[in-house]
Amino acid sequence: MKTFGTLIAAFGRQYEVRTDAGEILLCVPRGKKSLFACGDRVQVAATGPGQGVIDKLVERSSLLYRSDAWRQKLIAANATQVVMVVATEPSFSDEFVSRCLCAAESQHLKVLIVLNKTDIPAGLADARSRLASFVKLGYPVLELSALDNVDALRSRLVGETSLLVGQSGMGKSTLTNALIPEARAETREISEVLDTGKHTTTFARLYPLPEGGGLIDSPGMQTFGLVHLDNEALESSFREFRPYAGQCRFRDCRHDAEPGCALRGAAERGEIEERRLRQFLQFRAECENGRRQAQGW
Asked: Model pTM?
């Protein structure tokens, strides 16, 4: 018998699906293709006790993924909000934050930046300073300690399907445990030698929230490729660039060294940050190079 359900965990070619009747099935895809993500709505057919096969993918409202020249990694489907977790310790990359923002903006998702571990005062001022440019762009930043009180975050998750994303060691699993104690997500100590966290979550998992909505905890990552975004989509994902769209002197302006470039003019006047423009040019070059490599140029 066929039924519909939600894919709540993805690992390799096996997927956990919670049917609309509440049954958990361990499923495999029908055929060779395995392009499913945590959060997908699927049609499944039971093949045995606790087992099934995925017959059909229901159209997604959103799909967040990262990519390079050779492969793409699906992270979550049908999310409505990206909760980007950074911390006072270990140090985080503001370039990584920009990359995640591009991916979220390209899918028209809400964004909430969570500054975790505020109980560690040593890195607090520096973290706030590096987040200031994102606050200026209108991205909300919520400060908390996952070991203390997460009620402020809990209230921001109600009614949303939220994806926790961030570099390793930022405390995503600890946040998940605080929000959903029964999740029992693994946590490990931070490697002080490498100033980076160990990967504690090896696959994405969707947890239902008691207040309504869901929370997807994703594996910690250190890179976030954007090769799947074409130049137009990438430029549009920088929200502060949008008011200047179509205002350059040349229609095919690359915002590099052309005269009459609206973005460069805005950067010179301090209306957009020069650093963000440099990041855009860096990301675009990376994406163009990745696409050339994928095509064998």
From this structure: 0.90
Helix/strand/coil for 277: helix
Rg (the chain; Cα; Å): 20
DSSP classification of residue 203: S
CA gap 250, 88 in Å, rounded: 43
Of 115, 91, 111, 93, which Cα lies nearest the Cα of 101? 111
Residue 207's contacts (CB-CB under 8 Å, 6 or more residues apart) are 8, 176, 180, 183, 214, 215, 216, 217
Alpha carbon distance 134, 139 (integer Å): 6
Place of tokens 């209306």: 271
> Rounded to an integer, what distance in angstroms lies between the CA atom of residue 42 and that of residue 129?
43
Tens digits of residue pLDDT in 175-224? 999 999 887 654 443 334 334 444 344 578 999 998 889 999 988 777 88
- DSSP H helical ranges for the chain: 94-106, 124-136, 151-157, 172-179, 231-236, 262-268, 274-294
Six-digit token pair at 246? Answer: 């179509």
